[in-house]
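Q: What residues go here?
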């Protein structure tokens, strides 16, 4: 009687161990949960931040490109986003988590995803059929459409490169992001527009913008975060000045808003 009971217990324990490993594997291949794109809304968390994979090191040959179907958006546009990965030979199983957010960290839910992608809350991730790399490349596509777009949208992506051993160690995640701006006008001869003068540029303590019909200027980081700076000269004049002395040195995007509703953009540098 003792021997029979022992055998049954051993089989029961082995079944539990095998069942746990199988469940874990399908959790990974089926996509990441919401909140792991490395974005502000996800508090910078990725799947290597305690949820799943880690311990590996990037080779430096990996390339991740986020591309948009157009150079800017206007309200109502259907925007296609493509996340394109070249592993550089470092991995043949790759997954991702992505989110679309405004400068305040508010998320925007895609209206559709292409084959190989799926929604996880407001986030986009791979599914079990879209992790295999072909010729060192893999990509995922989804669409955004908003009746009223914010001034800028940033797509965040955390791409997980695995060593395909079925476990969670030896893998690594690379984060990237790209910002798209609203109402940006391209292929327009500036001589046909009222001149927008920005100076000094590079700047140190202040930036001044001058143009006929100018009503407001806003400064954004290159990641699309709005910097709420005090502005001077915003009443009945075409000159506006903002204090930038307390900002970190680096690159920024200045948004110039005009009374006709148009927005023009200038790249500025603080040194």
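A:
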């Amino acid at each position: 009687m003792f021997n029979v009971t022992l055998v049954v217990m051993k089989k029961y324990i082995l079944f539990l161990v095998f069942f746990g490993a199988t469940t874990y594997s399908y959790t990974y291949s089926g996509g990441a949960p919401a909140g792991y794109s490395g974005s502000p809304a996800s508090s910078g968390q990725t799947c290597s931040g305690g949820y799943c994979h880690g311990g590996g090191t990037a080779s430096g040959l990996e390339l991740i490109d986020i591309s948009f179907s157009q150079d800017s958006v206007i309200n109502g546009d259907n925007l296609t986003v493509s996340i394109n990965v070249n592993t550089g030979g470092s991995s043949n199983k790759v997954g991702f988590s992505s989110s679309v957010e405004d400068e305040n960290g508010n998320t925007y839910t895609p209206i559709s995803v292409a084959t190989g992608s799926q929604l996880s809350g407001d986030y986009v991730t791979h599914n079990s059929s879209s992790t295999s790399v072909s010729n060192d490349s893999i990509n995922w596509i989804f669409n955004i459409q908003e009746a009223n777009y914010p001034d800028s949208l940033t797509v965040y992506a955390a791409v997980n490169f695995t060593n395909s051993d079925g476990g969670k160690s030896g893998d690594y995640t690379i984060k990237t992001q790209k910002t798209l701006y609203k109402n940006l006008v391209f292929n327009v001869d500036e001589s046909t527009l009222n001149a927008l003068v920005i100076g000094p540029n590079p700047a140190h303590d202040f930036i001044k913008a001058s143009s006929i019909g100018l009503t407001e200027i806003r400064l954004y980081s290159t990641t699309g975060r709005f910097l709420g700076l005090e502005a001077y000269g915003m009443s009945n004049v075409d000159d506006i000045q903002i204090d930038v002395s307390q900002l970190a040195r680096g690159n920024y995007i200045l948004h110039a808003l005009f009374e006709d509703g148009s927005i023009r953009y200038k790249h500025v540098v603080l040194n």
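A: Context that may help when evaluating the design: The chain has three domains: 1-30, 31-181, 190-270. The two ends are 83 Å apart (CA to CA).
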